[in-house]
Known about the structure:
heterotetramer, B: six-stranded mixed sheet, C: about 240 residues, alpha/beta
Amino acid sequence: MEHLANALVQGVMIGGLYSMFAVGLALIFGVMRLVNIAHGDLIVLSAYVALVATQSLGLNPLVSLVVVVPVMALVGYALQRGLFNRTMGADVLPPLLVSFGLSVIIQNALLMSFSADNRRLQAGSIEVASVTLTDAISIGVLPLLQLVLAVLVIFGLQLLLYRTAIGRAFRAVSDDPKVAQLMGLNNKHVFGLAMALSCMIVALAGVLLAIRANFDPATGPTRLIFGFEAVIIGGLTNFWGTLAGGIFLGVVQSVASSFDPGWQILAGHIAFLVVLAVRPNGLFGAAN
Amino acid sequence: MTIALSLRNVSKSFGAIRIADGIDLDISENEAVGILGPNGAGKTTILGLVTGTLSLDAGAVEFRGRDITALRPEQRCRLGIARAYQVPQPFGDMTVFENLMVAACFGAGKSIAESQAGCLEILEDCGLADLANVHAGRLTLLNRKRLELARALATKPKILLLDEIAGGLTQHECDELVALIRRVHGTGVTIVWIEHVLHALMSVVGRALVLYQGKFIADGAPADVIREPKVAEIYMGIDTDA
Amino acid sequence: MPEAQLLRVNALKTFYGDFQALYGVDIEVSAGQIVAIIGANGAGKSTLLNSIVGLNPAPPSAIRFCGTDIGGEAPYRIVRRGLTIVPEGRRLFTSLSVEENLLIGAEVKRPGEWTLAKIYQLFPILRDFRNRPARLLSGGQQQMVAIGRALMSNPKLLLCDELSLGLAPVVVKEIYLYIKRIVAGGVSAVIVEQDIQQALKIADHVYCMLEGRIALQGPARSLSREAIAAAYFGV
Amino acid sequence: MSGFHVTRSSTLTLVSSIGAVALAAVLASGALWASNDTLRLATDVFLYVALACLWNFLAGYAGLVSVGQQAYVGLGGYVLFALAAKANMPVLYTIPLLGIVAALLSVPSAKLLFRLRGAYFTIGSWVLAEVFRLTAILIVPLGGGSGMSLPVRVAQTLGRTPHDRFVMTYLIALALLLAILVMIFLVLRSRIGLALTAIRDNEVAARSNGVNVDRIKLVVYVAAASATAMVGGLIFLQRLRISPDAGFSVNDWTALIIFMVVIGGIGTFEGPILGALIYVFLRETLATLGPVYLIILGAVAIAVMLVEPRGIWGFVRSRWGVQLLPLGFFVGKSPQR
């Protein structure tokens, strides 16, 4: 029983990370109906940027966020203005294929620069620090930090969307991009900012992931899929739903893994397909 | 007389705008009905509710006594409900002839071989035969409207819903259109026609309805309906002081 | 002409793919004027407006605003120059509140007298509903928001596309009273209307479009009903 | 009577049809004269062309942009190995069975995936492929995570010498490719083909004209899955070895294929064939480049999407109005009037 409870707690923690993968995806879909297949590869790319920053500047990975987050924001803005904006239109095919091509390019560029070896960021003592709750359940400080950061990110995003001018612009462009530009908004710039913001969250998620688990150039697609599953399970309504979706996915994986590690990821996928079959609008989405 | 189409207590709004507010309406088999009303009154929306491209907030739609409220647009089309859109919706990368073939094969449920002759005939009727091989995306607005009508006819409809198809036509073209619609009506097809070009409408329909703020505020012989003061006030803007 | 010329559309042709919608349209608007553009469905009125605001491609010299060629510029740049539209069907941002809709209009940060306070002074009802989602307002109130949203950019010229669409006659009358008041305050306006009577009542100058061309134009008072009917229906 | 008549072919389509038949005959005769290396390369080409045409059928015609077709490639490979090595079924008989198994599995898959629209369908298809891959890892009798080889005795049923085996695989691959091309051609020429173009042009209008969009898409999805599995079976029959990572590789069976189709011309019949040929030509000339190779292909595909989304053949077709296959309708004036 305790063993199960521990799996549950760990699942909730990892779910925080998944929801961070997911909100970046949900944000750009919400603002510009773009699904970025390279999302997972951007997460891995940020991990490598952090790797370079820690090695060359001797920074602690958590401190390296000061570099990684702005770098990824620039990457995001540049990708949107240089690439995705040129494919936006009624047809979903061009942006999909372009982001898919980008995904393959990032993976192989990382493969060439860093080889296929497993990497990990060394964050020092925080990695092993933990809080013991009972004999069987202890919560790592790092996973806890992830969950807290995820909640903070989502809280911040909600504030940004509903309390700031840029958030208002995001929502206006999402409602009616044609009229938004007639009211003086530069949609391309707004889209660029949305992608930059998405990539900032990606950077945070990527660094946290890289401290916690091994990564290599090919791990991106799986992160994309986890994020996507969290979005769909969460129900596409708001970011809190996405957080719930991420936690649901984390718990399912963690509990399955406690029985047989081979089933961890498969169980998550199956849970997603079951949700799709039973409640296509998501577990936490509106019933309509 | 049997009823072709019924709306039963139909309601529909977009936000604060009420398009239909508990509408009841019966249209008989082989009737020809015109729908009038100011811009934005929701006439086009009513057609969308009948063809199933829009969903009702409340109420039911019946076709020949059968409740079709839950049916999808393609199912309603195959039952015999065809619509010519106000803003033409051609298949732009297909030729005019192929546009009709889609309607004949799927709307009327025929094979490719069975469809061809009928489609040619409709093209000639609608004055499009010489444009049969032209890609629909290259047609002028006028010809797109003709195609819209031709394609609706190719589904072999029992009821034909027309939305502003006479606008922009010259007098001669308008007369041809009226003659065509009368011919179609003559073969037993029920007609529901939204039109601002009144003289065209009046020469076809035997009954006119005026939609205003979610209700039909007038229903009767066209000549009587347009003389009603209420209708003149809200609809005939230019003629109120005449 | 003694008055300052604000907008000049010069031999504008517009195409949608292979389909030509405008065949060389000329229009002039002077400061302080209300110009009406009338015509049947499909005559090209909305196409003309969309070309002016930058939604359709146009050669630079085809549209001149305040002495600068602006044809083909991005819409948001044109707004910054002081040319705004109240779009057909209002097109409010449905998930934004009334006040947020108005604030979007102020994104371009053009200096001028129109502020939230002044909009609420003009349309007091909007102040009461400021935090409501815009989609829950009545048609007339939504039209006020749409006009207010456009005014928030402090335009020199306001384009109004089918203001009367879907509104009760009483409401239409009220909306046009507001337009008169706004123009009296120093903003010029181009109104596109199907309601001819309404257009004639308010406009200084009228253009009538037919099949992508200007079929008739002149000072509103000088045009006879017969001439308009002929130009309108092309008979 | 009507003064018009309908034809579906022109001189050009007649010539190209005869040319296609002649080309097929020449290719078939290759079994008699080609060397082992040529046969192997040609078999590769056939299988790539087949995958490209099938993906294009799905994405370019039915708008179902799947990045999960590797699910069916791997499925085909695994089922073939299971039937031939474990159940001792003659290899030739297994191939149609692969199609049937994949078709049966693809129906419930489609029912699930079709709940996701547009881009979400795309990622959903990837999840499904991952489910297939992770499931394969769990199946111990088929080698689990490390995969399995096809026993020599099974391979030898195709022919005693390596040359005989190459000839056999070559002929099966060619036959399968021709069958797939004919299938796609006939579907495009049928009512379904009309519906597919209509849906692509204007889905709302297609529905309003009686087209059951979901059913048409289901038919295409199932047909593509079934044929892809047969191609997958042949791919691994040629390789004699399969593993979950090789069988369900998104790079090998979907990314490369998508790049071929995009470069050649998505939504055209000829484009994927052209794209696959260009790919194999580049691979043979630039083989040593490694990952750079995928980067270049990806970049070219992106450039094509940005500059000319219709690809090389789409450009040729719109520029010169070439239509090699009798897919359209032509209405002519009858002479007697």
